[in-house]
Amino acid sequence: MHFIPILRHSPTLLLLLFLGLAGSAPALAQPPPEKIHAAVMEMKIVLADGNGGKPVPYADTDWKIVSAEDRLSALGSQEVLARGKTDAQGAITLSNAQREQLYTVWSNAPRHLWLVEGLHTFRFEPQWNGSKYEMAVVLQTQDDTDTVAADEPERKPAAKAAPKPLPKSFLIQPGFKPAQYRREFAGWQKRFAQDIAAFRAQMQKDYAYGKSLLEEENAAALKSSFSHSIHDGQAGLSLRKLIIEAAYSMDRRVAAPGATTTRLLLAQEARPVGYGGQYAHGGYQVELWYMSFADVSGWTDRDLEESVIFSAFAPLQLPPLNVIQRDTWPALAFIRAPSGEIKIYAMSIELKRMIDAVFNAQIR
To answer: What gap in Å lies between CA 202 and CA 209, rounded to an integer?
Structure first.
């Protein structure tokens, strides 16, 4: 079994694991139909979290396969061809009838078949592994450049000004030394992932476990959950509730806010790009860290315009070092435990705006 990461330009740690996929050859324009039919009937898809090396399956995770013209349309598409939840191993189960339908749709419009998981969109593409065709599911993000198959007419876009590279001051605060902050944030992500794993383990033993934590009389139990990564003040309890409620969300059309929050916070590309300083809130000294949730090192101004996350801020401006300027840039609020380790203090107003932007993008 080969683990094939498809994280290019991805804002998350999500991996798709293709069982038996031996190669990573580029998609072919006109593969033989009977070979693609076989590939669709045989394909196996597993969703897993790649944080820390060994993949951890995304168990009981909502997914859907839709027909749509492009990535953003796929997020909100109502043309659902198949949907469900992953099993305990993170695997997606498709019946033979569903596979036949997917093959039919792909045959008529190859570039209109998408797998959607939360905010992640994947296009189905045939690949040659050296001995046979296999159907791969390739991650598409806002900065991917779509190629046009040989049998599709080229669409000429409206004339636009040439995209301009983002200035260095946009990528990181002048004077900000990121090494220590990034080490601390990576450590926090590891603790957060461990807290999530512990919660999921309890949920597997007792499905009502999370619901019991949401009961007011169990405030102490709620505080003990996610205790390595989230502060136990009132604001931290609210963030816990949001994450726990997502585990019971029955609406499969869109990702629950708590699920989106978790994915953003665990994103592989999430990293501090600046420091605002400290401010007092609720009797605590809170640190404001300016963040990026995507690798923008190669981005242009056009890529920025198409980003769902950055679209939450208008105007978008990375404040200077040690300056707290709210609601202009993605930011997280932390406090320090007696040990010196950071814990997230609450859902910051910036994080809430990003979650709202993502939700709106899904329902458009």
So the answer is: 7
